Amino acid sequence: PISSGSRSSKTFKPKKNIPEGSHQYELLKHAEATLGSGNLRQAVLLPEGEDLNEWIAVNTVDFFNQINMLYGTITEFCTESSCPVMSAGPRYEYHWADGTNIKKPIKCSAPKYIDYLMTWVQDQLDDETLFPSKIGVPFPKNFMSVAKTILKRLFRVYAHIYHQHFDSVMRLQEEAHLNTSFKHFIFFVQEFNLIDRRELAPLHELIEKLGSKDR
């Protein structure tokens, strides 16, 4: 049966494509090539001579697209009734606010929260003043803090999937895909200190485990 929910019918399709032939596209290709080698610690390092903002921008777009796809595989299990609050286990609950449309944090279901979150991220990524796609257009002064907020929020989608939907992920045999994506994400944010440790607490044990396997 098709569940009623704006989301389930229109699984999020990432619109954010990095234009072919652009420098950012070359960077994305570089990232994919080093990922292919299997060494994720190596894959997140800033390529020699590259601009840090641009490297963070390209990877942020890529993580957004990955999380979109991962969440897309389990949307039918993440419903108003199964997930009435946006949580990551019993101790962590998230309330949504974007500072512009919704200033005071609201309590909402996980599918609604994730819908707000992904739409908000998409709007940031589509904003040429924040994420310039044209060569030579400088990144804004506040780029780093924008990127940090985006990544902090994207982390919450991983945290929700791991805590509330991991059984579905296993049934769909998507766990290797999820683990690789998350591990890449974590190594990336650790390399450039992009997410506060407190924010990572809901998946602290998993993060420790991923890190120790790799030393």
From TrEMBL:
The record's SUPFAM superfamilies line, in alphabetical order, gives: Mob1/phocein (SSF101152)
Where is Zn(2+) annotated to bind? Answer: C78, C83, H160, H165
Q: Which GO terms describe its molecular function?
A: kinase activity
Q: Does the keyword Zinc apply?
A: yes
Keywords assigned by UniProt, alphabetized? Kinase, Metal-binding, Transferase, Zinc
Q: Which Pfam families match?
A: Mob1_phocein
What is the name of the protein in this document?
MOB1A kinase
**Gene behind this protein:** Mob1a
